[in-house]
């Protein structure tokens, strides 16, 4: 298994600089990672840097809390697409989920997935799984499947920093076969990345991609 094919190299710190984004993109090029995920502000910069490469550019929508209004999320999506993004990672509205406002949750996802798919872009929904009950996760899996979401992500890595093999397996059991899974949250080792892929993840989001593949090349 070539782990580089699964890794989405992430840099979403609030103090991120253009120089750091360039370094991230260069690491992605040198190691042929699947994608980079960066703040919306830097999408145009990354788009120029990664021109003529196969590296996909992802950015976040409604990050990190997810409770932005639906029109705001749609506009974020449209702007990111105009700036050259390939993939959009939208944080689900946890407040609406917890309040049982399922019509709002439905419209939130549906509005943004339509905006993304109309322009041929990949759309991900970030579930803060560590803050959701099993029934809420199942309901979200059903919504994401029915609304044509491309990928569901385990967390933002902020409110619930850890990911686990168990949550990936649980998502795999409840999501539609056509929906992929992105694992995110403190993934720093080759062993954990491989276990998450075996459990059902098709994408590994991490700022530690170089560390992971270095361990793959030079096992201890």
What is the CATH superfamily?
A: Aldolase class I
Number of helices: 9
Order of helices and strands: EHEHEHEHHEHEHEHEH
CATH uppermost class: Alpha Beta
- Shape assignment: globular
What is the count of distinct domains? 1
Rg over CA atoms: 16 Å
Largest sheet: 8 strands, parallel, barrel
Question: Summed up, what is this model?
Answer:
This protein has 220 residues and is an alpha/beta fold. Helix content is 45%, strand content 16%. Helix 3 runs parallel beside helix 5 and helix 7 runs parallel beside helix 8.
Architecture overview:
The protein has helices at residues 18-31, 43-49, 70-83, 94-98, 102-118, 134-146, 165-174, 190-199, 209-217, and strands at residues 7-10, 35-38, 56-61, 87-91, 122-126, 151-153, 180-184, 203-206. Helix content is 45%, strand content 16%. With 220 residues, the protein is of the alpha/beta class. The chain has a single domain, classed as Alpha-Beta Barrel (TIM Barrel), CATH 3.20.20. The two termini are 18 Å apart. It has an eight-stranded parallel beta barrel, surrounded by six helices.
What key phrases describe this protein's structure?
220 residues, alpha/beta, TIM Barrel, 8-stranded parallel beta barrel, 9 helices, 8 strands, 45% helix
Q: How are the secondary structure elements laid out?
A:
Blueprint: E1 7-10, H1 18-31, E2 35-38, H2 43-49, E3 56-61, H3 70-83, E4 87-91, H4 94-98, H5 102-118, E5 122-126, H6 134-146, E6 151-153, H7 165-174, E7 180-184, H8 190-199, E8 203-206, H9 209-217
Parallel strand pairs: 1-2, 1-8, 2-3, 3-4, 4-5, 5-6, 6-7, 7-8
Helix pairs in contact: 3-5, 7-8
């Amino acid at each position: 298994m070539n782990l580089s094919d699964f890794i989405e190299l992430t840099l979403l710190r609030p103090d991120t600089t253009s120089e750091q984004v360039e370094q991230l993109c260069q690491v992605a090029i040198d190691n042929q990672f699947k994608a980079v995920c960066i703040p919306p502000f830097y999408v145009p910069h990354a788009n120029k840097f990664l021109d003529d490469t196969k590296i996909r550019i992802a950015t976040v929508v409604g990050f990190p809390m997810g409770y932005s209004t639906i029109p705001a999320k749609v506009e974020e999506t449209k702007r990111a697409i105009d700036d050259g993004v390939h993939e959009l990672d939208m944080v689900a509205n946890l407040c609406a989920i917890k309040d049982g406002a399922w019509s709002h949750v439905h419209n939130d996802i549906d509005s943004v997935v339509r905006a993304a798919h109309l322009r041929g872009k990949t759309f991900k929904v970030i579930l803060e799984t560590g803050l959701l009950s099993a029934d809420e996760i199942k309901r979200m899996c059903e919504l994401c499947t029915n609304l044509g979401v491309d990928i569901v992500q385990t967390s933002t890595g902020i409110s619930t920093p850890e990911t686990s093999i168990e949550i990936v397996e649980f998502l795999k059991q409840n999501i539609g076969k056509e929906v992929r899974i992105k694992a995110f949250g403190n993934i720093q080792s080759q062993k954990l990345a491989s276990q998450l892929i075996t459990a059902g993840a098709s994408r590994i989001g991490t700022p530690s991609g170089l560390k992971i593949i270095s361990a793959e090349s030079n096992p201890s």
